[in-house]
Each structure stands twice: as C-alpha cells, then as structure tokens.
Amino acid sequence: MHPVPGxxxxxxxxxxxxxxxxxxxxxxxxxxTRTAVVHAAAWKETFDAxxxxxxxxxxxxxxxxxxxxxxxxxxxxxDGVRSFLASxxxxxxxxxxxxxxEKDTVHGLGNRKNALVLEKIREQGVAVYPGxxxxxxxxxxxxxxxxxxxxxxxxxxxxxxxxxxxLFEVRIDGVVAxxxxxxxxxxxxxxxEAARELRVGAGEAAVFEDALAGMEAGRAGGFGHVVGVDxxxxxxxxxxxxxxxxxxxxxxxxxxxxx
Length: 259
Fold this sequence. Notes:
By secondary structure, the chain is an alpha/beta fold. 42% of the residues lie in helices and 12% in strands. The protein folds into 2 domains: 2-35 and 126-255, Rossmann fold (3-Layer(aba) Sandwich); 37-124, Orthogonal Bundle (DNA polymerase, domain 1), CATH 1.10.150.
C-alpha cells in the first residue's frame, strides 16, 4: 500500500499496488483516454475500403472487436497493418513511410488510418477515463514516478487535447521509439526505456495496459507488476498474456474510491 503524504485532515487515499512499485508506466489508448474506439473505427474504415477494392462487395469486413484486439491493438501502425493482412493471407509491398493514404502499401494503409484518426479526434475531441485520472493523480501524490508509453505517433497531441500531459514525467511514444530504434509492443523495449528514464529498475515498475500485446511486453520485460485494464470483456485473454491482475477501471486500485 502507498499512503498519500500530506498534513490535511482528508482521509488518505491508498494505492492497491505492491510496495516494491516506485514507478507507474501507462499505456494511452484505452487506459487513460477513450481513443481506443476511435482507433478501432479508423482501422475498420481503412481495411474495409481496401478489402472492398480487392475482393469486391463480398469481402469479409474487419471486425472491430476480434480483429482489433487480436491483430492491431497496441502495435505500431505499420506492424498492425502487417499483422492484420497476414491473418487474411494478404501480402502488400512495404512502400515508403511518406506513401499517400490512397496507395495500397503497408505504409499507405497505415497513413490512411492515421489521417482518419486525426480527423475523428478533431471532430470528436478526446475524452479521458475519470477513474484513470484520479488514479494517476493519487500515484503522483504518493511520490511515485509516472510515464506514458504508447505506440501512437500522436500521443503528445492526444495528451494535450485531453488536458493530462502534465501528469507524466516521461513520454515514450511512436515518435520517440522511431528516433531511438526501439521495437514496439509486444517487445518490452519502450516500457524498459521509460523505466530507464525514470531511473527505476523494471522490477520496481508497474505496467498498465489494455492490449494483449502490452501484456506480453510487461511479462517479457520482467516488470514488478502488470495490470490489465479490461474495457471490452477480454479479462481472460489479458491474464493469459501476462497480467498479474485485471481491473475494469483504474479507480478499482484506489482504496475507498467512489466512482
């Protein structure tokens, strides 16, 4: 347990975390912000348009639940394209990173998806999970270090739009990963980099993820605590892929919290 220090008369908020934890490493989409549904919708629009061009009106659509969770959630954009296409036995040229969105290459499809995500965020804004914000604030009040770890190249823009950028000391996102040549989830490298920047060992850090790939990264990195956040009814899958504990919302890790 980690009591919040302070001399006021309010009841102390305790964190339901192992005492060994000195830092908390948070995924963005689906853990802190409600953008996972935006990403799923953008992937569906991108892949369905491609499959319709390829296979005609009888194409098998992208499943926003199963296909998203199994093949693209938590992965760097190009890896998500490759992973889903491989599940359908489809190969495309890699193309170049600056391929236009209408080009049928791995990077072209990825850029189309990204353009759709940005469009949807501009139109709809970014909503946070209030329980997650309360938890991160309590983590900081308890003196623990914080980082956000995301495969998204738009991570900083999303944090700013959501009004929560100030809650994190370190940001390791798709831009930073590319600059430092860090492989994305399910590899643990981005989480390990965040722990390194916070000057804590992996065994002293907790990982908070909603994606199966994120669970695998937490397990592979030897982190002290791996928390699965189940927003879509995949608790068993999160456990199988490496979660030490699964919660429906991070507020469940605040003792005495009232939603």
